[in-house]
Design brief:
- This protein is of the alpha+beta class and 96 residues long.
- The chain has a domain at 37-96: Cytochrome b5-like heme/steroid binding domain (Flavocytochrome B2, Chain A, domain 1, Roll), CATH 3.10.120.10.
- The protein contains three helices and six strands, in the order ββαβββααβ.
- It has a six-stranded antiparallel β-sheet.
- A hairpin with a 2-residue loop joins β1 and β2 (18-26).
- The chain is globular.
Amino acid sequence: MCLQAAPVIQVTATANGHATAPRQITMAEVQQHTSEESAWFVHEGKVYDATPFLAAHPGGADSILIVTGQDATEDFNAIHSKKVRVLHSVRVARLP
């Protein structure tokens, strides 16, 4: 069995609305954000924190929570039109 390194994601954190120095996180860290308190997912190589949008999502919080902690690109694109794909306000990071 061959073990592979976990994928690394480049993160630019924010503090009080100001960008801080980038740091590296793994997909394993993204996979820890699967609750209503912290709901992250990957879409087209970028990591998003959907937590603030859960209550307002037209499809309900469960439709987001079911894909948290994983790459949701295929599921997201199958349901949303390009007009709806405005995610920049909840972006956390970008995959390298």
